[in-house]
User: Fold this.
Amino acid sequence: MPKYIFNKETLTYEEYTYSGKLKVLRAFLLFAASIAVAFLYLWFYTSVLGYDLPKTALLKKTNAKLNTRLELLNRELDADADYLASFQSRDNDIYRSVFGMSEIPAEVRNAGFGGVDRYAYLDAIDRTGLLKQTEVKIDVLTKKAYLQSNSFDEIESVAKKAGDMAACIPSVPPIVPDRSQYRISSSFGYRSDPFLGTKKRHTGTDFACHIGNEVYSTADGVVETVRTDGYGYGKYVIINHGFGYKTRYAHLSQIKVEKGMKVSRGTLIALSGNSGRSSGPHLHYEVIYKDNYVNPMNYMDLAMSVGEYSQVTEKASVFSGNNPS
Assistant:
């Protein structure tokens, strides 16, 4: 609407027009005033009344929802970690043990999560630390689950060979279990050394018997060592059965196998004797599991009949045909 002013000279009303500068100044003042009013309103709304701006309130609401989801995810990850820990314990104590496999050490299962902070980039955007904590848990569980999956795959592979494994466990005596032909002269464990008289660990079982008594492999395997030790085991044979098992037959008079030869349970491998550091005719028999000496009596059944034992040796002789006479 145009503005009119009264002209005293002409005694008439004339239309008033603003100059360009005045218009700009007026617009600037109006704009500055509106800015000032807006800031005053924001200050009063946020500082005096304590309200959040709509966008801030929306972001806070969204952030609260995300934090709730992260907390729920963390609880689920903790539960999954407990389940995985039970699998790991069962894996080491039962599954791997049953199949003669070495357990996976804790330092291997937990490897790769120390040292350099690979999550430092989250510190600037995650003041609560919840996002960082969640990502760490996910990475740890992913790595442990991958390792556990590989372990199960390995166990499955070994389980498919369970029949082979059963044939490789030294489960029969090394001589015919005829009580009239032998006696146990020394057991596994600590005893008085027959030469020095001092207490010393005996790493096997001694079968006192006549020189020339037939000695048989107690499980399937490959002849690893054929050797003569004049001041120790005398003439002896070591058979590697796989799956962590080895057996030693010592103080022999004659050896009927050669290094590298495959043998079966019940294969004739030697004749007993009195060679090496021996106080009398006998067979010294050892079972070695994962490089540790174990009690042979925990594996063999001396109560089996001579007839049952003969079936084992006869079966071995059918499949061998490569033993030197």
